[in-house]
Design brief:
By secondary structure, this protein is mainly α. It contains three helices and four strands. A hairpin with a 3-residue loop joins strand 3 and strand 4. One of its GO terms (biological process) is cellular response to oxidative stress.
């Protein structure tokens, strides 16, 4: 039987992730509260966040910033997780 969760992103019951997607308590919280579709939306946002902020996923400071964005995106905690200021998905940064 397929596992479902009430998705923090979609605000509906949806197919759950198959595995914990990130280490630690944050990963477990995401696993318990985010659907596959919600995670897919995060990955799209993450690409934007990494590119717009010039983050390096091998750098601990970048990972800490990404985790702040995760908390903002999934759980509306803090000031992170939104599309970077001035970002225009159709053509990059606004001038």
């Amino acid at each position: 039987m397929m596992r479902t969760v009430y998705c923090a992103i979609l605000k509906v019951e949806a197919e759950a992730l198959d595995a914990v997607p990130h280490p630690g308590a944050l990963g477990q919280r995401i696993y318990n509260n985010v659907s596959k579709e919600g995670w897919k939306q995060w990955l799209e946002r993450l690409t934007t966040i990494i590119n717009e902020n010039g983050l390096n996923t091998a750098d601990i400071r970048s990972i800490e910033l990404i985790e702040k964005h995760m908390q903002g995106f999934f759980f509306d905690e803090g000031d992170y997780g939104q599309v970077p200021a001035g970002f225009n998905a159709g053509g990059g940064a606004k001038k």
